[in-house]
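#struct-pred
JK: can someone run the complex with adenosine-5'-triphosphate? inputs below
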Amino acid sequence: MSENQTEKLVEKDPGPAKDIQDMADLVSLSKRRGFVFPSSEVYGGINACWDYGPLGAELKRNVKDVWWNAMTRRDDIEGIDAAILMHPRVWEASGHVSGFVDPLVDCKTCKGRFRADKLDMAHCGNKPSKKPGEGSDCQLTEPRQFNLMFKTHMGPLEDSASIVYLRPETAQGIYVNFLNVQQSMRQKLPFGIAQIGKAFRNEITPGNFIFRTREFEQMEMQYFVKPGSDMDWFEKWKEQRIQWHLDLGIRKEKLRFHAHGPGELAHYAKAAFDIEYLFPFGWQELEGIHNRSDFDLGRHQEFSGKKLEYFDEEAKERYLPYIVETSVGCDRFLLVALTDAYRSDNERVWLKLHPKLAPFKAAVFPLMKKPELMEYTDKVSAELRKKFRVDRDDSGSIGKRYRRQDEIGTPFGITIDYDTLSNHTVTVRHRDLMTQERIPADKLVQYLDEKIDNWGK
Ligand code: ATP
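RT: done, structure tokens with the ligand placed:
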């Protein structure tokens, strides 16, 4: 190979691309490449708590940005950021103190504790591990109700008067601010309030990596509408939300709606659908879309004694709006994005992430560690970094460097070679098809912008 050529990958037949077979592969990649680490690992970890590493934190930030922009770059939705600790009466009004419970069963044999309605996802403590109740010696108790809220105390006294809860959902922070937002932003119905924030649930059986954890982030939007128009808005939001997942490249055949039947429907909900994703461990909830009627505002009005009605200037009447809620776990979506993107063949593992989600939009490589190439690489990275998060890698063969970037989902590899010095063009290599093209170095920002915006179109 002459110095003036960019090395082409030796294209052995890579065989067909395979989807993820085993979640353990994703857990291991996540740890190895800095997406997700077990929390407090040097102390042996803490059950079902995870820390996002450098690439995970970047991916998570991208997820939140994409959601926040989709929600708030429009006239009819405002964003807020409410406190995690709220007045304890909030949780009485919302029904969480009395009703936010899951049925818990104990096994007298293996001493395991399981969620009675999710036994099919649990593993019994005995070896070989089975589902609880499947083994001949399993002795499951009758289910009892277990409240999932984490309690703590406000102030120096740990008495019952000081109990506060870590919020188990972000939605209540929106409901209690409904009039504040409506009046300060002079919004008219229909309008929505969006929020991203931490929620805490003392889940009985967390697990499946970051699928179900005790501390997680939610991205919730509550849309306030005139009663009577609620089912139309419910349908509109169902469509908009599934489209959001599709636009981020999640495969259509891995997504479906699941309607809550009469047995599943929460007492306050008029209608509810989940968007489900087909994980290697089965179809599971990714997002909930609920028509919550006027239950929430009605309850807060009742418990606080403050009127929360909206004055409809056109109709000259006051009423409590109905609420259509869309609620997706940020960590849950991140897991879907990684699971859906994971591909392998005989040659490599790569993450087919949408570039908007990918931690690095591009990686810049000098073909060789020569000062003139390194200097040009620095110039190109500095220019790209004004706009994008970009990696720079000069160690190992170019093939190895491509592989390293494939594994973390970097969509574009940009190589600086000797031709670059003479004609100021660079090689752009595409992650998914491994094709290459030559682009003028001064057009790179525009090129990447267009590719990212038009991805999948
Ligand atoms: P489940 O019945 O599975 O416990 P849920 O129906 O109570 O879940 P919601 O209250 O509707 O869940 O929460 C909205 C979204 O928040 C869920 O669709 C999911 O994406 C996310 N979520 C809920 N609980 C957890 C958790 N323990 N860990 C991670 N994400 C969660």
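RT: quick notes.
The chain is about 30% helix and 25% strand.
The pocket of adenosine-5'-triphosphate is lined by residues 169, 201, 203, 212-213, 216, 218, 285-288, 327-329, 331-332 (CB under 6 Å).
JK: thanks, will look after standup
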